[in-house]
């Protein structure tokens, strides 16, 4: 009885060791290589998405910096008739709302409608600068899974071709390459798409915050201009 138990334990240990060795051999690099040529554009899309996210995140966060005293100082300068000092302040702050206010200051003396249109155009230009590259993220979010699906179809075609070529001698090894390609590219495409999707939506939320701030600053600036002179 003891001999039987020892043999069972040895068999289980041998199987566990074999499974462990197989798990160790199966790493991410090997899986990526099994994906075939489709993995190259997916890798490029992933690198591009990460670069765009980091670069836009830094720029948008800098644009979102708030100076609570900025509009108060602009108001004081305008009430004192110090237009040049107000423009110098806008240049020192160097934020989207400061550049927008500077455009408005450059149109002082013209009809208020002209000043408002100038401010709105300047704000739209600042927003478009912040949104640079976001369309590529949105494209990657949709295109990544499509490329992965293309790899899946190519892998299944390869698998069926191997089956037809093998004839009556169909073996699992004949199908392994195509199935690997199909599954790996699907996962890779979904990973790239998910990363790009969340990165895009997060950056859009940051841009929306800047847009709301620009709208609030433009209204405040127009209120200052419309205040009656003391």
Write up what this structure looks like.
This protein has 230 residues and is mostly helical. The chain is built from 9 helices and no strands. The protein has helices spanning 2-25, 28-34, 39-63, 70-79, 83-93, 96-106, 112-130, 134-166, 172-226. The longest helix has 55 residues, at 172-226. The radius of gyration is 31 Å and the shape is rod-shaped.
Give me some keywords for this one.
230 residues; mainly alpha; 9 helices
What are the low-pLDDT stretches, counting only 5+ consecutive residues below 50? 1-9, 11-24
Number of strands: 0
Shape: rod-shaped
Q: What is the tally of helical segments? A: 9
Q: What series of H and E elements makes up the topology?
A: HHHHHHHHH
Q: Would you tell me the overall average pLDDT?
A: 79
The residue fraction in helices comes out at: over 70%
Rg measurement, Å: 31 Å
Q: Assign the structural class, choosing from mainly alpha, mainly beta, alpha/beta, alpha+beta, or little secondary structure.
A: mainly alpha
Q: CA-to-CA gap between the ends?
A: 107 Å
What kind of oligomer do you see?
A: single chain
What percent of residues are in strands? under 5%
Described by strand count, sense and barrel closure, the largest sheet is: none
């Amino acid at each position: 009885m003891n001999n039987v138990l020892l043999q069972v334990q040895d068999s289980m240990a041998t199987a566990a060791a074999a499974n462990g060795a197989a798990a160790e051999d199966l790493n991410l690099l090997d899986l990526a290589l099994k994906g075939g040529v489709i993995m190259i554009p997916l890798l490029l899309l992933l690198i591009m998405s990460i670069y765009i996210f980091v670069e836009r995140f830094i720029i948008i966060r800098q644009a979102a910096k708030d100076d609570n005293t900025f509009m108060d100082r602009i108001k004081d300068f305008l009430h004192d008739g110090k237009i040049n000092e107000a423009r110098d302040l806008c240049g020192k702050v160097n934020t989207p709302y400061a550049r927008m206010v500077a455009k408005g200051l450059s149109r002082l003396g013209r009809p208020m409608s002209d000043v408002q249109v100038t401010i709105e155009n300047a704000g739209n230009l600042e927003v478009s600068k912040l949104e640079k590259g976001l369309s590529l993220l949105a494209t990657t979010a949709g295109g990544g899974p499509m490329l992965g699906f293309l790899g899946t179809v190519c892998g299944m075609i390869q698998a069926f071709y191997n089956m037809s070529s093998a004839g009556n001698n169909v073996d699992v090894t004949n199908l392994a390459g195509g199935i690997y390609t199909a599954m790996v590219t699907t996962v890779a495409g979904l990973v790239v798409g998910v990363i790009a999707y969340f990165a895009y939506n997060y950056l859009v939320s940051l841009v929306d915050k800047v847009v709301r701030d620009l709208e609030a600053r433009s209204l405040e600036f127009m209120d200052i201009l419309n205040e009656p002179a003391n």
